Amino acid sequence: MKRSLLSLCLLAALSASPANAADPALEARLKALEAQVATLQAQIAELKSAPKPVDSPAPAPTDDVEAMAAAVSANPEDAAAAVAAAPEAATSDSGSGTSNPNSMNPAISIILNGQYAHHSINPDDFQRAGFPLAGEAGPGPQGFSLGESEISFASNIDEKFYGQLSLSIGSEDGEDHLGLEEAYIETTSLPNSFAIRAGRFFSNVGYLNNHHAHTDNFFDRPLPYQAFLGNQYGDDGVQLRWVAPTDTYVELGGEVLRGENYPSGGAAHAGAGVKTLFAHFGGDVGGESSWLAGVSALDSHTEGGEDGFSGHARLYIADGTWKWAPDGNTKDGGITVRGEYFLEHRDGEWTNPDDILETQLWDGTRRGAYLEGVWRINRQWDAGYRYDRLWAGDEGPYASDFDPDRHSVELTWRNSEFSLLRLQLSRERANEEDTDSAVSLQYQTSLGAHGAHKF
Amino acid sequence: MKKQILTFLLLCAASTPAFAKIEVFACEPEWGAMATELGGPNVEVSVATSALQDVHQIEAKPSLIAKVRKADFLACTGAELEVGWLPQLLRQAGNQKVASGDGYFLAASQVTTLDKPSTLDRAAGDVHPQGNPHVQLDPYRMLAIAKAMSARLQKIDPANAATYQARYADFSKRWATAIKRWEAKAAPLKGKKVIVHHISWVYLNKWLGLVQVGALEPKPGVPPTSGHLAELISIAKTQGVSFIISAAYQDSKPSAWLSERTGVPAVVLPFSVGGDAQSKDLFGMYDSTIDKMLAAAK
After folding, report:
1. Partner-chain contact A453 B88, CB within 8 Å
2. pTM of the predicted model, to two decimals?
3. Which of A193, A256, A308, A422 could form a disulfide with A243 if both were Cys (CB 3.0 to 4.6 A apart)?
4. DSSP assignment, residue B48?
């Protein structure tokens, strides 16, 4: 094309010699040539402005639709065919041969959290009637603190295993400590949707327990989680679970765990002190509502638990979640309602953790529940209310006629999927004398790999 | 007793009858529609999302886990469009047939993508390291994807390979004819300047020669702000913008607001199959998209 244009120009230049200017026939020819040059120039400009064929198949230049499709295909065979068919098409940019030693690194995701809290009762003097503070339970620290920041690594190990490691960094009484939250491997290729997880992990009982705190709707865990699971129960062990091939979601499973951490303790039964069973069910109602419900049991043989308990304990949990969102766009609006109910039996004895000579029988039942509703106003804002309460035991070392309860409201602002600010006001009647009013403000950000969260 | 239950469960799970249809799990309606075109009576398609949902922001719902659990073939966009939910579905469903290998089909991996960022920084919004994933509005890429999908279906269901081949041949013929029709019809749109809601139209723009001069989202995934909209008013007025494009699932208020203040018409395009009444299948989606833009450009 360029060459023909050049020769045309040359021709035009040559023929435009002044000696022949008078010849009318020649003048006509010249004019015709000039017109031709103009059209060619216009065509060239058009070609230049049109997008390159590899970026997008421009509509005009070829009749061969298949070749155009092949030009944008990532399949090497197709692409080769395209090059043959349309020589101007560049090869696809996929499958470049560069190697990056870090490309096999696991997905790294970091949660940065920071908070300010003001409690009307000094957290050091805080007591919850009927429920000693075990595990991570209780009001957080007064004033500024980091809460818990988290680093998590996850990746497929090979074609049969997936692995995840989550570390938490927190401070307690001015000392920073690194905690191993989860470190487990999981099978990915067992037949019929069986999966086995082994290592340290959060138990799959209840709803919130296996969710990392950074996905919570509220600043802190509800009272029953604090009272019966020390905020969140994780331990070393194995888990087997199975998803049924049904239209309704059915997940069944069980765990055997070491029994080192609250609500257990002492790693009884030769280091297999806790056994759990769980069943989760879920589905959709129309296009706008989804639900998830579950029942779980946690059976623990405890030797010297953090609350002084030794013996056999069994915890039952029922959980239910219902989400509604216009057109199912849960991030842009809608309502989430969630509740869980806890029932705990203890059968054993109690040794006062502060005075080992003081013992008594601990035989009784305690209960707890919470109900929360969160209104997602739009992509940036949500507001929520939660009521949680506990029913203390009538007998045993922590028997109490008073049952603690709490009201909380929260308001969250999200700048993006990756950052939020949350304000929470709560009022807990912790015991007969004390009511703790708390204001908490937190930021929470997630950087690194884009996490995929559970429902 | 326990042994009996186990045997029963294993039997139930293993006894998939030979004549069973291929269960297809499609993340987005366009891949469901494509699987229907290519698989016909041999496939049973369930679609995870609707054209009225923002597929960047879906949750790993229990109903979807149940669907993935039963699937023989999974067809999704890829390029990290579903990064917030698909990995979770696959892990929870534990269905190794679709977790990798031939049963795991990502459309964007079958073609070259546009807008691959040279630097990755979330300060630039929700960027996709593997390029713009919204490939469904380039008919040539769709044809390349269909070819690859048909090849996969033939692989996982060899008994019906001939049927898949024939259906692809038929589809590609109809599609090629339709492309000619669409290109002829959309010729007047060439060079028209547009403002878009989200940068999800790059493939359509390139194909039809539309020129994007602004986006309602200041950065991908960041909702429109009043300050940014005010800037767009002057762009819309001075640059001779023909129309403002948003997708059926997007909040139409920002584009309506801009339209009101500038007199530039706002047009809501289906973006996916089911995005409007006319978009009953892939052909309808393209017809509707072009018709609506032509009507707005008048």
Report:
1. yes
2. 0.85
3. A193
4. S
